[in-house]
Specification:
The protein is of the alpha+beta class and 268 residues long. The chain has 2 domains: 2-177, Jelly Rolls, CATH 2.60.120.10; 187-266, Winged helix-like DNA-binding domain superfamily/Winged helix DNA-binding domain (Arc Repressor Mutant, subunit A), CATH 1.10.10.10. The protein is built from 9 helices and 12 strands. The protein has helices spanning 2-13, 38-50, 59-66, 148-157, 159-185, 188-203, 217-224, 228-240, 256-261, and strands spanning 29-31, 70-74, 79-81, 89-95, 98-103, 109-115, 134-137, 141-147, 205-207, 210-213, 244-247, 250-253. The strands form 3 sheets. The protein has a 4-stranded antiparallel sheet. The protein has a 4-stranded antiparallel sheet with strand order 3-7-5-6.
């Protein structure tokens, strides 16, 4: 079996060095599957079975695949990988959130994407090129990491995982197309409302006063294709109506249902 050969290769290779984009540091802790408690193993298994990446696989299959992974902890602001760095592993978030940014030729950093619990951070198993963006932890994150060189055996034994990867990438492309259309046809308030609704589903955190999204106004402006001034003005108008509560490093959504129904009447 491919998985058995994979385990044998891991035993023969010893601890080994981690891929450069997840090299341990003083702010990182490395936990191997053999040293995790039964409760953590069970939690990891539940997350894997619920992830879109492993849709269609049973508990036994997920347990086999999980045995080939390394558990990692990324500190807040830790860089998972850098733009242009070779793709060497697959990272599945167990908790926390990650922002994906890209540098322009002029050196300006732009926020492209957010990944949350259960998301695969980098899906390029067949790629030999470098990362097209950088990924940084917004908060402390736990993750399972598979080296791509070893993941090939998993893909060979479980073709449904390869199919799931294609479906996930197709879904992301569809969302990017929607965002492009919105920038071309919708007013700023509508674009911001749609962006916040998407972010709520992916990285929203329940709080005392509502659901919180840990993104600055500048980052929201980048994701909606507008200016910091305009985002501030729209959020202030919504705050007066009780829809949101702007924060210095984020925004609290007090009325998610109202946010979903917001239309062009807000103006830009």
């Amino acid at each position: 079996m491919a998985i058995e050969r994979l385990k044998e290769a891991e035993r023969n290779s010893g601890p080994g060095a981690l891929p450069s984009e997840v090299r341990p540091s003083q702010t990182l802790s490395l936990v191997t599957p053999n040293s995790t408690t039964a409760s953590i193993m069970a939690e990891n298994l539940v997350l894997m079975c619920a992830s879109a990446l492993f849709t269609g696989l049973g508990e036994r299959e997920c347990k086999e695949i999980m045995s080939c992974a390394r558990a990692r902890v990324f500190a807040r602001d830790e860089l998972l990988f850098s733009q242009g760095q070779p793709v060497r592993n697959l990272i599945l978030l167990q908790s926390g959130s990650v922002k994906h940014t890209q540098l322009s030729s002029g050196g300006n950093e732009v926020l492209l994407w957010m990944s949350g619990t259960g998301d695969a951070v980098n899906l390029e198993p067949e790629s030999t090129c470098g990362h097209t963006c950088s990924a940084r932890a917004v908060e402390r994150c736990r993750a399972l990491v598979w080296e791509y060189s070893r993941l090939q055996a998993v893909l060979a034994q479980y073709p449904s995982v390869r199919k799931n990867i294609s479906l996930i990438l197709a879904g992301r492309l569809h969302e990017l197309e929607e965002r492009f259309r919105e920038m071309a046809t919708e007013r700023v308030a509508k674009r911001l409302a749609l962006t916040l609704v998407r972010l709520l589903k992916r990285v929203g955190k329940p709080g005392r006063n509502g659901m919180e999204i840990s993104l600055t106004r500048e980052e929201l402006a980048q994701m909606t294709g507008t200016t910091l001034f305009t985002i501030s003005r729209v959020l202030s108008a919504w705050a007066e109506k009780g829809y949101v509560q702007p924060r210095r490093q984020g925004v609290v959504i007090s009325d998610p249902k109202r946010l979903e129904s917001l239309g062009d009447e807000e103006g830009n």
